[in-house]
Amino acid sequence: MSAAIEVRVAAVRQLTPVVREFTFEAVQGQLPGFSSGSHVVVHMPLGERSLRNAYSLLGDPADRQRYRIAVRLQDESRGGSRFMHEQVKVGDRLQLSPPANLFAPSSQARHHLLFAGGIGITPFLSYLPELQGRAASFSLHYAFRGGLTDAYLDNLQASLGARLHSYDAEAGSFLDLAALLGDQPLGTHVYVCGPQSLIAAVREQAAQLGWPASRVHWEVFAAPEPGQPFVVQLARSGRAIEVGGDFSLLEALEQAGVEVPSLCRGGVCGQCATAYLDGAVEHRDAFLSAAERSTTLMPCVSRGRCGSALLLDL
Amino acid sequence: MPVTFKPLESYRDDFSYRNSAQAIRRFPFPFPEDSYMYSVNIEPATPREPGSIFAHWFDIDEHYLSEMAERGIVLEKDPERCLVMPHMAPAAWDTLEMLMEHLAADYPEHFELQRDGDQWRWVNRPLGIEQRFTFGDPASLPCEPLEYITRQAQGDFALLDQRDGNLFMDAGMVTCPADWSIKFDAGMSFTQWHAPVPMAHQLGVFERALKYLLNIQVDHPVRRLNWTMTVNPRMDTSSETFHEWGHERSQVTAANVARMVHLRVELQFMPRLPRSNALLFGIRTYLISLEELASNPAWACRLHRVLRDLPDAITDYKGLTLYRQTVVDWLSQYDPEVVAA
């Protein structure tokens, strides 16, 4: 597990009624550098439990002085986004896991086609300085609800001009994925970040139109889906840990002081893959093969089944 | 303790390269047991004992001046040993920044870095360099930034672009490779350039290593040791110059083996390049003659057992087949089990 970085909240801005932006500075020394598309994991002390949510770094990677993230208040918040919105003030100190990048722009793309849904705009904000800096060909399609999830729209309009295409659902304007994905230059890579429904729609449409999967990049930041409570047993230490319905297995392990290396915390990167010896598993990751799933699970998203004790090789 | 540099020695022609007693003491003997098999021997590159080769991210030792002169000779003959594909320019600047930051912090008596925004001043005292330049502007340096900085740092450097769940060798400075070529491997994926290695694929070594490397995070580098053997202390055993060194493997005799044959150990060091998301693959090479190595009899005994029992496929792949027996015979004098028999 990588050592956490301690940061001070240098600024807080309310961008829309549901989106709040935070600027962090290092408490000691210099912040680690980051690349376009990187995220950090914010550790949030919530009373007796501690949540860790991943947020894209949305500043210019050339700026080594500060990190910026934007947090959307989730309607069904497990407490993370509510904590960020209601508790965190300028001057507070927070722990971050260092930057990791699972959503980098491809060096091979002839054209970058970016799809953002609402708060999914954030990773692309760190793409833009790089794409503009190397005079890359790109277009950004930003779908939102006007006045609610349209953070950074004014800035984007000013800096991107015709390369920005905006779609305000409140005004009845929607993405036409079939048209957009059906007419792109050879060598285009497509990137999508936003709600699960948008990601699924882009991936499905691209697949139908014959896009190679290696040219379709997606990143989802969502709290792990809740499930039924279950009990996990650790084979080596003999400990038994109860996992509540709105806890992920990974969070429950961390809460119990068992550190498992993790990066994306969303079932994608494979870093937290853990061997299990017995029990029925509800696999929810997008990483392990069917064969691997017979012995391995990803505790960031996957769960034991209710009523069946899960035995981990930990 | 400050590093002191030996006067120029050669890695070719008269081969005047030698290790001091201190260099022998800090030599990275790579065998934790009496036998060798491929494994994912990657560990977090946590700094270890001061003075050891693991103390800093980039090790500078007594051979610094000689190794930099040798790099100059190779580049003079073959400038394409340094290559940077256009999309790797940001990774080249990342590498320059990382090397300058760490060298200046770890060896302040030799290197100095001052930064004012993008206006930088770099001082390399051993090589007599003082350079003012604009970070990000290649025209402000005497040559391309990767070449500029790696002419001042020991070891080879490959820069790997990360995409499609793999790593691609799209840039590098490679003047002291152990029988490979940056020009041949350029543009290949991790999977492709490891294709010729025997046995390791069946063990799943590369699949696991690749997963590990793809997830390396900023400021959390990893390292591993690799090894082979080289006849004469020759740094440049690249595919391009095979005609200059390949035949030397048939010149090893019982009379010259101790001085002629060298254990060649690579300290591979892999940090994430923060701004480009590329992976730096540093290959720092250490050479030690059998005679020098045998000043530590425990090493000689262990190397005897490792080489004696090394599978033929690995022996062949490492190019040791012609002279392995001569080496094993010479080393056997240090193995108490053999001596007693």
Q: Explain this structure to me?
A:
The complex is a heterodimer of chains A (314) and B (341). In chain A, 17% of the residues lie in helices and 33% in strands. With 314 residues, chain A is of the alpha/beta class. The longest helix of chain A is centred in the middle third of the chain and has 13 residues, at 196-208. The radius of gyration of chain A is 20 Å and the shape is globular. In chain A, 44% of the residues are buried. The mean pLDDT of chain A is 92. Helix content of chain B is 30%, strand content 21%. Chain B has 14 helices and 10 strands. Chain B has helices at residues 21-25, 64-77, 89-106, 145-150, 182-185, 190-193, 205-214, 242-245, 257-260, 290-293, 297-308, 312-317, 324-331, 336-340, and strands spanning 43-44, 82-84, 111-116, 119-124, 129-134, 156-163, 166-173, 222-231, 261-270, 279-289. Chain B has a 7-stranded antiparallel sheet with strand order 1-8-9-10-6-7-2. Chain B is globular, with a radius of gyration of 20 Å. The chains are: A alpha/beta (314), B alpha+beta (341). Chain A binds chain B through residues 2, 32-38, 61-62, 98-101, 104, 106-108, 130, 214, 263, 269-271, and chain B through 87-88, 90, 94, 161-164, 170, 211, 215, 217-220, 274-277.
In summary, what is this structure?
Chain A has 314 residues and is α/β, with parallel strands linked by helices. Chain A contains 6 helices and 18 strands.
Helical amount of chain B? 25-40%
Taking all Cα atoms into account, the compactness measure Rg of chain B is 20 Å
- Specify the overall morphology of chain A: globular
The largest sheet of chain B, given as strand count, sense and whether it forms a barrel, is:
7 strands, antiparallel
- The first-level CATH class of the largest domain in chain A is given as Alpha Beta
Estimated helix fraction of chain A: 10-25%
Number of helices of chain A: 6
Unreliable spans of chain B are none
CATH architecture of the largest domain in chain A: 3-Layer(aba) Sandwich
Give the oligomeric state.
heterodimer
Q: DSSP strand (E) fraction of chain B?
A: 15-25%
CATH topology description of the largest domain in chain A? Rossmann fold
Number of strands of chain A: 18
